[in-house]
Write a structure and sequence with these properties.
- With 305 residues, the chain is α+β, with helices and mostly antiparallel strands.
- It has 6 helices and 10 strands, in the order ααββββββββαββααα.
- Strands 1, 2, 3, 4, 5, 6, 7, 8, 9 and 10 form a 10-stranded mixed β-sheet that branches.
- β7 and β8 form a beta hairpin.
Length: 305
């Protein structure tokens, strides 16, 4: 059963400034066992070393005590350490942002980063803990939007300050880099921060689901990439075949060139040549006939002699 909001209110800190200790204690006591790093890459949410895709539509509870901000330093191609995390300094969101001038010198470039802890509460990933970190503009914007909603709940001393979100994406076209994906943390509903059991509604939903649906075999990002590459190659072959068929059809439909018309002078010359050739052939035939007629006469003279 749900605990009453009134009962929880008495245990809440009076203001945001007094929540630092409570926030830190919650983060420290949460632990990191079973957690996996989560990221939003190329329009897809994935977590873990094998980059398992997050189930579409699954609900994730964001720990409102786990918001952190700070700086992260990444290597670069010029430094020969591209993609390497060479430094990270973060503090709870209840504390001021670290001063950039006080960051240590590292072999990389510092940029702002945000962090939060999530736990899946529905679907195939139910029970999975994850840490989402991001230093892109889109990640920081999603973090700030969600944190503002949580702050409103804290100011109102509302016990239901745990956002249950679906992990979605949006995109826009960048003039230089093309299509850019941005993470979206869409709040579907809120949960009681002190609840240790499911709410009445959640309990009823669970009772209705007598038998859980069989889990689907999860496709890793690497396997999906390989499958999509094979499908793309097959599509290219089909496209090439279609182009060849279209070229053959176009060639067949092309009008055949008309024969050139023969001028009167050329025709006269051709006919004269054909007549001359015919006369020569007639003369040759007459000569052959004369020779054949003379041949028997010569044979008869030889016999008489």
């Amino acid at each position: 059963m749900k605990k009453s909001v009134a009962k929880v209110k008495s245990n809440l800190p009076a203001g945001i400034s007094n929540m630092a200790a409570a926030l830190q204690n919650s983060v420290d006591s949460t632990g990191t066992s079973g957690e996996a790093y989560m990221k939003c890459a190329k329009g897809e949410w994935v977590y873990g070393a094998d980059e398992t895709e997050v189930e579409e539509g699954s609900l994730w509870a964001v720990n409102p005590m786990s918001f952190e901000h700070g700086y992260v330093a990444w290597g670069s191609k010029e430094r020969g350490n591209e993609g390497v995390n060479v430094g990270e300094v973060t503090v709870p969101a209840s504390q001021p942002m670290p001063l950039e001038m006080q960051l240590p010198n590292v072999n990389g470039d510092w940029s702002k980063i945000i962090s939060m802890q999530l736990k899946c509460v529905s679907g195939e990933d139910e029970g999975q803990l994850a840490i989402y970190k991001g230093n892109s503009h889109g990640a920081r914007k999603a973090y700030a939007t969600l944190l503002e909603l949580v702050i409103e709940k804290i100011i109102d001393e509302d016990a239901e300050m745990v956002p249950l979100v679906t992990l979605e994406t949006d995109s826009y076209k960048h003039a230089t880099y093309g299509k850019i994906y941005t993470p979206i943390l869409k709040v579907v509903k809120w949960a009681d921060i002190s609840a240790t059991e499911l709410s009445e509604d959640e309990e009823e939903d669970e009772e209705e689901e007598e038998k859980p649906a069989p889990k689907k075999t999860r496709e890793s990002a690497a396997a999906k990439k390989k499958r999509l590459a094979a499908e793309a190659a097959e599509a290219d072959e089909d496209e090439e075949d279609e182009e060849e068929d279209e070229e053959d059809e176009e060639e067949a439909l092309k009008p055949k060139p008309k024969p050139k018309r023969e001028s009167d002078a050329a025709k006269k010359k051709r006919l004269a040549a054909e007549a001359a050739n015919q006369e020569d052939e007639d003369e040759d035939e007459e000569e052959d006939e004369d020779e054949e007629e003379e041949a028997p006469v010569k044979r008869r003279r030889r016999v008489k002699s």
